[in-house]
Amino acid sequence: MFEAAELGRTVSKSEFRDQAPQLRWELLQLQQRLRQAPFPVLVIVAGVDGAGKSEAVNLLNAWMDPRWIVTRSFAEPTEEERQRPEYWRYWRSLPRAGTLGLFLSTWYSAPLLERVYRKIGGADFEQRLQRILQFERLLANDGALILKFWMHLGKAAQKKRLKTLERSRLTRWRVTEQSWKHWRMYRKFVVAAEQAIRRTSTGQAPWHIVEGLDSNYRTLIVATRLRDAIRQRLDESSGKAGAAAAIPEEPNESGARPTRGARELLRRVARRRSILAQLDMKQSLAKKTFGVELETYQGRLNQLQRRAQQCGISTILVFEGWDAAGKGGAIRRLTAALDARSCQVLPIAAPSDEERAHHYLWRFWRHLSDAGRITIFDRSWYGRVLVERVEGLASPQQWLRAYNEINQFEEQLVEHGIVLVKYWMHITKEEQLRRFRLRKGSAYKRWKLTADDWRNRKKWAEYELAVNDMIERTSTRTAPWTLIEGNDKNFARIKVLRTACSRLQAGLKNR
Amino acid sequence: MFEAAELGRTVSKSEFRDQAPQLRWELLQLQQRLRQAPFPVLVIVAGVDGAGKSEAVNLLNAWMDPRWIVTRSFAEPTEEERQRPEYWRYWRSLPRAGTLGLFLSTWYSAPLLERVYRKIGGADFEQRLQRILQFERLLANDGALILKFWMHLGKAAQKKRLKTLERSRLTRWRVTEQSWKHWRMYRKFVVAAEQAIRRTSTGQAPWHIVEGLDSNYRTLIVATRLRDAIRQRLDESSGKAGAAAAIPEEPNESGARPTRGARELLRRVARRRSILAQLDMKQSLAKKTFGVELETYQGRLNQLQRRAQQCGISTILVFEGWDAAGKGGAIRRLTAALDARSCQVLPIAAPSDEERAHHYLWRFWRHLSDAGRITIFDRSWYGRVLVERVEGLASPQQWLRAYNEINQFEEQLVEHGIVLVKYWMHITKEEQLRRFRLRKGSAYKRWKLTADDWRNRKKWAEYELAVNDMIERTSTRTAPWTLIEGNDKNFARIKVLRTACSRLQAGLKNR
């Protein structure tokens, strides 16, 4: 879940200076419009120590008119607060309609800390998260606009950041013994945080995960998201049609740059430091090694699957990827190792009439096999957040909701003991072109290449963002994505096989 | 919560025959309109054995066109079902858009049974309920119209019903050893059911609690609610304005009676067998006994409150009731027994501007006292579902949502160790008139009587239904309502004091 926030995304000083004035001006304008609105805005800032939580809050206070902002940070409860139910202090701090509340160390802090320190068990943690859900739903139902930012840093980046803070006399006080203690417990925090974010990221109160490495980047992200959300809500409540689907850009007023700037810049940054861009696409495997490893892993897979069948452990392999990325070839190398009676491949095309008359997950639930079998999905439920998103077949509301729905679906699979492996088959844009041309030139491969393929290729950039979001939001500890560097087919096929083996082995061990 | 479903509500054969043909005809018409709709209807029938669950499902099948109905009852999972995640069988049975699903023994059965048999603990039970919430939310977000009926019988009524079934050779098979075993465990079932209903009654998928004693009554309730819900949704999605707020009645077609009939009849039945109508309003207390008991209970309350203060246990007393029902007098008898420094009375009037700019519960959260004190609310958060409902100050969506919000609020109070006592001060309509006239005639009481009082009195019947709903939905095991028979002031005041004492004593014992 946090992979997409450990990519080293930065915005240069000059890029930042280009965008900041316009953003500030827009936020101020929106704040004035907000004052007449019948709802409050609630911004919750949480995350890893040193990832810029308080900086973000300070900056918004500096950029906007502080008279209409309530800033609250909740430390250890006071004696007065302890004498009342836990949520009393949150309730009394809520911003009134027309104003903005910036909240640090909120209702998430205590449950997270108590979970990490093992003061509460998993079930109690879940119940605390449910109370959070209830609380936020109640506020959102009443009209509150809620934005939640999780400021993230990788473990190494956090260490570096704490060291930097320690070096300056002005910031040294911020790094305590506890900061380092928590750093050593990094993994526990991340596990609990992931669960909390997954559970409480709702359509009404979504989490935004922000990489906290670079202050320019995180500032622009927070400010842009806040601006867009407030503007969208104000436009909706003043009845501007279509505001929900496409957020209109303001014209170039006050001489500053047009707004498209900030959002466009962030998209550029996202693409130049995307999860996919991190992959080492040069990896390859010599033909000879490939032959040896193929035999090894196919043999191993066959044995593992026999054992899985005996234990009644089912496996689901999900394949997503670019056109011509080699899904078919990889799948054939898998099925070659398996007993056809214990394995099925399901190519997922456009839904049938019957399927369209149901929830989009219905057709995937239907295909769950009985115990001990392997099901391979050639494309899957992720179509909702890929093709349906990019092609506009699902509304933003629908595909934004889908991340959570998919996580819950997969959670049920894993809870039931199913081994779930999700592959993203990646190739570079150049490699795709090469393969398309090859197909075009080959009499027996030409049928594989359709007009759709060329059409999809034109939307590469949009798909890239969609893939990045998908991995960010659905690569969970229970159901992680495996990214396959697919420019070299041999390398890709072995990595697919090897991953299947190791995941199946782990699944057998857990049993 | 189930009090309102143990009142002996019946509909006579002739009343039923008057309404049934029109209802059937309307349901058939709506079913035809539904076939073109882009959403399915899901009716979940659960409840106490013998309360008419399968009868309700059979009847809807008989009244409507079974070609567009999917009826499913989920028994013990089969081997095939056990091999897949729990929800697989529910997913594959979901009705397609345009059709109606009637579901018996659904996803509620297993968690309830496992909880009652203590196979799972409280926290696990909560998690199962959360999964239900997720599932139903996912379906509702996708457009599904979900209605849930809980068919209820009191313990004595269930026994009678089981005996009746046993007497006939045709129905004897339905009563098994397990039926009686469950009857003996009645209380455990009711406790778990209450929790499940409270947790899963959402705006998107509300529960309807139906008294199952009389088949005519329960048939009309289920059919009417189903008709209204389908019609409302169809009207909404075909864009008929105002359909959500007031469900329009169909004109008298097909020669049958106008629809208003069935709903009006049910309102009449509800009023003639309401929770309030059950109260024995003749109860009174002689002046002499009153004097003795007043001294006893005031003394006891004083002692209990001293102890509570030492232990840091807070008490909240909520007073709701008819105008002139004697709230003020009862409150004065309480405060007379208490140290003014440890006690505050909060009269709740219309909200201030500041309060209006927040969630309606905000002002009540604000008033929570520090540990060890008594807070008396003279009117309360229940205004949302009483005056705001009746006067149209809150939309149906808002006040329907409020029951759950209030339950969650009170749950947090009780969890924190606060003793919460809720009084409904009841008087008959005649007694109110007598008191109004007395006030009018008395120089020093005249100020108490306002034009509002006379206006409210005209809406007695509407308030009566609102009070009934309020008690049905918010009288929970954690926070029950105490109904005070108030025609005799002495009796009422002593009952208020006695209840406060016993609840405070119980609260001290739990500590």
Notes on the structure:
The structure is a homodimer of 511-residue chains. With 511 residues, chain A is an alpha/beta fold. The first copy, chain A, has two domains: 3-272, Rossmann fold (3-Layer(aba) Sandwich); 287-510, Rossmann fold (3-Layer(aba) Sandwich). Helices cover 52% and strands 12% of the residues of chain A. Chain A has helices at 13-34, 53-63, 79-82, 88-93, 109-116, 122-141, 155-167, 177-184, 186-200, 215-237, 260-272, 287-311, 327-335, 353-356, 362-366, 387-390, 396-415, 429-441, 451-458, 460-474, 489-510, and strands spanning 41-47, 69-73, 100-104, 145-152, 207-211, 315-321, 343-347, 374-378, 419-426, 481-485. In chain A, the strands form two sheets. The first copy, chain A, has a five-stranded parallel β-sheet with strand order 2-3-1-4-5, sandwiched between helices. The interface between A and B is large, with 51 and 51 residues.
The CATH homologous superfamily of the largest domain in chain A is called P-loop containing nucleotide triphosphate hydrolases
Shape of chain A: globular
**CATH second-level architecture of the largest domain in chain A:** 3-Layer(aba) Sandwich
CATH class of the largest domain in chain A, named: Alpha Beta
> Helical proportion of chain A?
40-55%
Biggest sheet details of chain A: 5 strands, parallel
Give the domain tally of chain A. Answer: 2
Strand order of the largest sheet of chain A: 2-3-1-4-5
**Percent range for β-strand residues of chain A:** 5-15%
**Radius of gyration based on Cα positions of chain A:** 25 Å
Give the oligomeric state of the chains in this entry, treating copies of one chain as homo and distinct chains as hetero: homodimer
